[in-house]
Backbone:
């Protein structure tokens, strides 16, 4: 395959090439191998990878109209490479960030020092729909509110930025492992020669931290994975993870509360549950406490949780710390709790509840990305440069009605990486979502779910909106 | 094992057995369309529907007056039994439900089992009645049977023999007993008739159970209905006989042991043993077999409910939590 038509634009950091068109040093082996491979072979490889995802049922669900459609997760067969040195920096930054976020959650559900000290506005915390007053005064094991975090990172010419902290029920890790398995099988010799760091032990690490979070010292606590069920968009991941961590995959209807404990219904009777790795949103966890119409959760669960007889991972109420407005304060949290400078940059964020930020947003809508603070998955987003004046006008009306519901960020020049598109290498925008685990201490596998905006020029990487996945190879030293 | 997972495995076994049953009958039925008399074709469709405890869609089966009508109606009926999404027992739906159950219990089955079932499902997803009717529909049904058998083989070769395995097998055997008894009862219901296709109908039944060669070895080339039933019900060597299924179901129940609802599991074990005794003696008489098969059919349904009560949906007051 040649890269003669491959477009390098200095406005975007290219993950494989330097601005002068030469491959980056750490990509030299990959580049040379790809040059040697006939393009037909790469096309066949792409087909094999897609076929293996199809036959293994590696899917996600998209909702449109009244229907839920199971779709194959699109995957690009060309890996994206990250050096060991870059990874160490990311690892340190992610560890620092999660430490501060856990301290923040312990604080706001405890004495709320950070609010009293005026570091973060009280109404931003208490007014956040994800702030759960029911969590006040609950001691969580090892102070771990967030056991699993999936941080969205993007790279620009200035370096890596955190785009979003996903602290509720982050998904995508199964695709990280599936992408690796499929790409590794097709680029065997190259994989070996690149000395890529492994990611397959993610399940083992997750199992370890979940066991550490058990309510009592128990060498073999009963761990379950609570799924909303087969129609959830990430159901494949729930199955995959349950298997990897040796947990029973349960739905709310499999559980019951009795005598202050949670039990699951098994073929040999009721079995006590110690740790629930829940992939159900807060709202649906317990109809007696949160949404009364929820059929996905377990009535009485929060009572057992408050009594310390079951662990929920992640804890309810973590969403307040990944709120799109609160996000802007994470660097301040790091300074406040850890006395350190943040190792990872935030994206400049205009919080529309602030008058000057609102004014700036309205004046510069064409150049900004506007997000609703309560939305995720790329929904409800305005991409200024690609919008029409009618759409912008509609947004202006909405923003003025409820400024606190919106934030704005500059359009980031997301880095690009070569992808196999219609039989040739083409540059597409990418991000990455590493997964950070925390039980007694932090553990991170050297890898991430790399999301790709497969449509030409698109910056939206979400799978529900035309995005796909790509394997990330973190190289050894 | 989680009760709902046991239920998923059990139903996966049942749906695939149902699909296999339909494939066998459909393969034989579309073969009759080539050269058999209209009456035999008519009987064949009735037998398929009765074995599924269903009535054919309105307007069909009444109009078997000519070849044209017969072929047009047969096309409609084949579509209804094979691909119709609103028919819960169509082969397509059996695959959809089996796969959906398998998907939810992927961590209890082997990766090879999932791959085998999902591949068959994806293959079926690309087809429709027009597609298969264009060439030789019987090869489609034969091919689908092979896919189901392959899945059974992969299951046999790769699955750990734990509770999950037992629930899959239990589903298969209970479904097989129920459908086998139903198709034999449908055959018996038409027994009074005497015409040129009478022998062919009974020979056809033997083929549906892969039993024609065994019958010839055991008896003769002359097809005697009483002996056909003797073989299909009581033969301990015939893989698809009711006796083998009932024995296997009873054995699986013993392996699973008592569930959290001891009364139901005791009753299920007892019923399994009773059914075994019912299907051991040869009777060589269609009239004698009918009440026995009625009972086998009813008891297999009862056994299903007892299994659900004993292991899946047991009352919570009994609560032996551990």
Residues:
């Amino acid at each position: 395959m040649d890269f003669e038509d491959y477009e390098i634009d200095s406005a975007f950091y290219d993950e494989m090439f330097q601005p002068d068109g030469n491959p980056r040093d750490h990509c030299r082996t990959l580049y040379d191998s790809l040059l040697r491979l006939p393009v037909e072979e790469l096309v066949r490889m792409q087909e094999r990878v897609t076929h293996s995802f199809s036959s293994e049922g590696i899917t996600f669900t998209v909702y449109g109209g009244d229907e839920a459609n199971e779709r194959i997760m699109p995957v690009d067969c060309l890996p994206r490479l990250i050096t060991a040195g870059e990874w160490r920096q990311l690892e340190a930054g992610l560890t620092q960030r999660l430490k501060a976020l856990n301290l923040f959650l312990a604080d706001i559900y405890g004495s709320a020092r950070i609010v009293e000290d005026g570091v973060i506005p009280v109404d931003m915390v208490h007014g956040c729909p994800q702030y759960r007053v029911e969590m006040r005064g609950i001691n969580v094991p090892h102070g771990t509110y967030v056991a699993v975090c999936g941080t969205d990172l993007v790279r620009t010419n200035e370096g890596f930025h955190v785009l979003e902290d996903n602290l509720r029920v982050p998904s995508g890790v199964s695709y990280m492992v599936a992408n690796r398995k499929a790409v590794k099988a097709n680029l065997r010799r190259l994989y070996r020669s690149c000395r890529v760091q492994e990611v397959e032990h993610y399940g083992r690490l997750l199992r370890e931290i979940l066991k550490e979070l058990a309510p009592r010292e128990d060498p073999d606590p009963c761990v379950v994975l609570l799924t909303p069920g087969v129609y959830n968009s990430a159901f494949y991941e729930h199955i995959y993870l349950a298997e990897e961590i040796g947990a029973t995959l349960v739905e709310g209807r499999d559980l019951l509360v009795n005598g202050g404990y949670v039990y699951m219904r098994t073929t040999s009777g009721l079995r006590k549950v110690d740790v629930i790795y829940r992939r159900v949103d807060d709202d649906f966890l317990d109809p007696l406490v949160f949404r009364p119409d929820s059929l996905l959760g377990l009535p009485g669960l929060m009572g057992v949780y408050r009594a310390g007889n079951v662990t929920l991972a992640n804890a309810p109420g973590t969403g307040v710390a990944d709120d799109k407005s609160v996000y802007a304060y994470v660097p301040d949290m790091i300074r406040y709790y850890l006395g350190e400078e943040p190792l990872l940059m935030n994206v400049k964020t205009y919080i529309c509840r602030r008058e000057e930020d609102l004014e700036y947003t309205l004046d510069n809508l064409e150049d900004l990305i506007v997000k609703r603070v309560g939305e995720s998955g790329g929904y409800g987003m305005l991409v200024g440069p690609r919008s029409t004046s009618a759409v912008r006008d509609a947004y202006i009306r909405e923003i003025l009605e409820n400024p606190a519901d919106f934030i704005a960020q500059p359009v980031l020049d997301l880095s690009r990486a070569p992808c196999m598109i219609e039989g040739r290498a083409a540059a597409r925008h990418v991000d990455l979502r590493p997964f950070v685990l925390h039980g007694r201490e932090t553990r991170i596998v050297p890898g991430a779910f790399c999301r790709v905006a497969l449509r030409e020029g698109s910056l939206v990487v979400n799978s529900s909106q035309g995005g796909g996945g790509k394997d990330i190879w973190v190289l050894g030293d | 094992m989680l009760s709902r997972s046991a239920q998923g495995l059990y139903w996966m076994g049942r749906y695939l057995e149902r699909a296999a049953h339909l494939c066998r009958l459909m393969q034989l039925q579309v073969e009759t369309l080539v050269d058999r008399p209209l009456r035999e074709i008519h009987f064949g469709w009735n037998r398929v529907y009765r074995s599924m405890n269903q009535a054919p869609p309105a307007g069909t089966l009444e109009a078997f007056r000519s070849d044209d009508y017969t072929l047009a109606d047969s096309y409609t009926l084949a579509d209804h039994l094979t691909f119709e999404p609103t028919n819960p027992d169509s082969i397509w739906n059996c695959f959809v439900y089996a796969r959906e159950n398998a998907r939810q219990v992927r961590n209890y089955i082997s990766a090879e089992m999932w791959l085998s079932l999902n591949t068959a499902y994806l293959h079926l997803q690309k087809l429709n009645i027009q597609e298969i009717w264009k060439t030789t529909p019987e090869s489609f049904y034969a091919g689908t049977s092979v896919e189901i058998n392959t899945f059974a083989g992969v299951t046999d070769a790769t699955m750990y023999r734990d509770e999950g395995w037992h629930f899959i097998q239990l589903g298969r055997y209970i479904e097989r007993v129920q459908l086998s008894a139903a198709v034999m009862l449908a055959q018996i219901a038409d027994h009074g008739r005497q015409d040129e296709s009478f022998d062919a109908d009974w020979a056809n039944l033997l083929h549906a159970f892969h039993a024609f060669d065994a019958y010839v070895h055991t008896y003769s080339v002359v097809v005697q209905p009483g002996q056909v039933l003797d073989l299909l019900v009581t033969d301990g060597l015939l893989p698809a006989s009711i006796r083998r299924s009932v024995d296997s179901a009873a054995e699986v129940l013993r392996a699973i042991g008592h569930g959290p609802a001891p009364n139901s599991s005791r009753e299920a074990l007892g019923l399994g043993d009773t059914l075994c005794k019912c299907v051991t003696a040869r009777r060589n008489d269609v009239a004698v077999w009918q009440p026995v098969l009625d009972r086998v059919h009813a008891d297999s349904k009862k056994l299903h409910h007892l299994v659900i009560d004993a292991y899946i949906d047991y009352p919570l007051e009994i609560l032996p939590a551990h």
In short: The radius of gyration of chain A is 23 Å. Chain A touches chain B through 28 residues (CB under 8 Å). DSSP finds 13 helices and 23 strands in chain A.
